[in-house]
Amino acid sequence: MEYIYILKQSLIWLLTTFWCYQFIISLCALIKLKDKTYIINKNHKFMAIIPAHNEEKVVGNLIESLKKQTYDKNLYDIYVIADNCTDETAKVAKQSGAIVYERFDEAHKTKGYALQWFLKKKIKENADYDAFFVFDADNIVDKNFITNMNKKLCQGEEVVQGYRDIKNPTDNWITAGYALFYWTMHRFYHLARYNIGLSPLLNGTGFMVKFDVVKPNGWETETLTEDIEFSLKQIIKGKKLGWATDAIVYDEQPTSFKQSWSQRSRWTVGHMQCLKIYTGQLAKAVKEHKTLMNFDGLLYIAGTAPMLVITFGLMILNCIMYLAQEMSTGLFIINILNYLIPTLLTPIAISLVVMILEKKSIKPMIKGLLCYPLFMGTWVIINLKCLFKRETTWEKIDHVRNIKISEVKEEVPEKI
Length: 416
Prior knowledge:
alpha/beta, Spore Coat Polysaccharide Biosynthesis Protein SpsA, Chain A, eight-stranded mixed beta sheet
């Protein structure tokens, strides 16, 4: 039993150290920095790329918002990749003013494959573009998105994530959970790291990549989370990603728990795929580059799942010690509550702070805040499930909300 006690204390110290590090880094989100100086002053030429699978109900709204950009209309083109579509996505996109490429490959259906297929064509054409954006078909885009991304390119940033906001945060507790999660990640993970010279990560949609970055091989990803994978590959090379608080894209979140479970399961499996493929490469990069940025990237991919396992391991060790009568009932209850109470209350408290900092309306989100621990709790269950059963097939998330950019309250987050 002495060995169990030693193991328990070691795990507690490891867990405490990990979260203290995360807490210290997150405080850097409160730092206000001066804007970077321009390396060049140029209006660049862009591609807006929209991979779309059966998105006839929403893709027109995204194209409409892109056509309303304040940026010079002659300096960007809108492309839709109608990927294995069986509906009118291609027709709607053409009628809305996009250039449409139709792709049919039932064996390779994820966004990563669609991007690789399209970008290889553009590289072969030696297309005259400086950079490209990637959007999901259900997105709508703030009118200043391209203008603000162009500033980042002028400042020398080659891979930049925009601010991914939510267009339906108050639909139900599930969409509220997504909103609170993304707002928290934007402020306390991405912005915090960007402020002190570490690297944020791409976040699925609303990001920019300098065209030269993907030449000559295109968009080479193989996991279910192509955004995280691409980010890690940049970090391994010693390259920081950028963050654009004022380049805003609004994303639709699923309202069905079944679809949310499927989506988050896919993300978790993709994370585990990245863990398997890139942990060793990130460790080598830490040794080669000797920077905190590379260590932070390693900690992101190799720390999340193990910390979850350690937390549950500690609860099991407490149960073992209690059953072996090495711990009183009172102490056992206190120890379990030490894990459960922070798990339930901390997300609510952090979310409230984030909403205040991001100037989000709290009243419409009260029910979502109260249910947020349930949302995150189901994600914990998903993580545990995926440790043993990993579904790697892609399933489409239905997007049906016909929300136009004019209907979204465009609140620009406080510029940092």
